[in-house]
Amino acid sequence: MPDTITCPTCQTENDPGNDLCQHCGRWLGDEKSATLLGPTTIHLRDEILQRLEQQGRFQDALHLSDNELVIRVANKEAIIRMKYEHPIVLGRQAKLRTDLLSFVDLSEYEAYALGVSRKHAQLQREGDYFLLTDLGSANGTYINGQRMKVHMQYQLETGQQIMLGELPIYLYYR
Fold first, then answer.
1. Under 8 Å CB-to-CB from 110, ≥6 apart: which residues?
2. What are the tens digits of pLDDT across the range 108-167?
3. DSSP letter string over the chain?
């Protein structure tokens, strides 16, 4: 294992355990983990995240490909990076079922305590943007503070705040 990882963007030497460059915030994951079909969770250091947000560079630092998306879970300062292949259900504690092609389990982010339903909402790609649908959740879904109507699709722009119950997340895509 190397002593350090050199950031390809800014050439800063980083500890091998870092997922993001400590200077510019670029994702340092190897190519193998970038091509995983399932979600990859990366926990961010607060000072890196704050610096990137202040500079307006958070999304740029992710270096997303066309079929990738990132869900930032704000209460734990973590990001879930994944390939988009099928509609994605956001919720908690899903058992493996054939009717759920892609599922993001938010249980580890205090989802139950924050009012996230088992099958809370669905993300679906439509051309150059994503659509979000509340699947009949008990505590509602909000986009930038506005409550969504159940079973209606809403167009999302990258970086918008989404509240699943009281769990704040942000969606980034290209």
1. 75, 76, 167
2. 899 999 999 999 999 999 998 999 999 999 999 999 999 999 999 999 998 899 999 999
3. --S-EE-TTT--EE-TT-SB-TTT--B---HHHHT-SS-EEEEPPHHHHHHHHHTT-HHHHH---TTEEEEEETTTTEEEEEE-SS-EEEES-PPP-TT-SEEEE-GGGTTTTTT--TEEEEEEEETTEEEEEE-S-SS-EEETTEEPPBT-EEEE-TT-EEEETTEEEEEEE-
* Six token digits for residue 69: 């998306």
Instruction: Give Rg (Cα) of the chain.
Output: 16
Per-residue pLDDT of 81-112, as tens digits, reads 888 888 999 999 755 554 556 889 999 899 99
CA–CA distance, 133 with 156 (Å, rounded to integer): 10
Residue 34: pLDDT band (50, 70, 90) is very low
